[in-house]
Amino acid sequence: MSTLNVATIKNTGSGQPTFRDSSDNVVGQLTQVWVNLAGGKSGLTAFGIRASTGVSSVTDNDSAEFTVNFTTSFASAGSYACVSQSREDNNGGAGDHNTYYPRTLSYTAAGSIRLRTGTTSAASRNDQIWVVCIGTQ
């Protein structure tokens, strides 16, 4: 086993660097897009981006639905995948863990994804929302 100890990894071609096994199969790639946003839950943090990479803006579509807009569009609407998680509030009390989660409604374009937060039966605003996307840009 070898250890890679470098300050910079750079793709010699275009696009994001990928990780390959000894047979040259792609086994991983870097995250191009991630965002931590406040969902604007009443009485908590106002709606907005807390921190992000590769996100130009987030739109509040009302009814606990949000559109995450990417700085650089992906190659097509089907060329990326996103995972997301949300949390009702910051208190850490009973029920304040994976009880509430976003459900992806649809890929609206190569340049954005729309999602909704809430329970399995109803939409509701959550305070902390995380989205991570990988794919071909």
Can you give a write-up of this model?
The chain is mainly beta. The protein contains no helices and ten strands. The strands form three sheets. A four-stranded antiparallel β-sheet has the order 4-3-10-7, with no helix packed on it. The two termini are 31 Å apart.
Question: What topology emerges from the helices and strands here?
Answer:
Layout lengths: L17 E3 L5 E4 L3 E6 L9 E6 L1 E6 L4 E6 L9 E8 L15 E7 L2 E5 L11 E8 L2
Antiparallel strand pairs: 1-2, 3-4, 3-10, 5-6, 6-9, 7-10, 8-9
**Percent of residues in β-strands:** 35-45%
Sequence of secondary-structure elements: EEEEEEEEEE
Q: Structural class of the secondary elements?
A: mainly beta
**Proportion of helical residues:** under 10%
Count of the domains: 1
- Report the oligomer: single chain
| Global shape | elongated
Segments where pLDDT lies below 50 for 5+ residues?
Answer: 94-102
Number of helices: 0
The end-to-end span amounts to 31 Å
> Strand order within the widest sheet?
4-3-10-7
Short key terms for the protein model shown above:
137 residues; elongated; 10 strands; 0% helix; four-stranded antiparallel beta sheet; mainly beta
Gist of the model:
This protein is an all-beta fold. It has strands at residues 18-20, 26-29, 33-38, 48-53, 55-60, 65-70, 80-87, 103-109, 112-116, 128-135. Helices cover 0% and strands 43% of the residues.
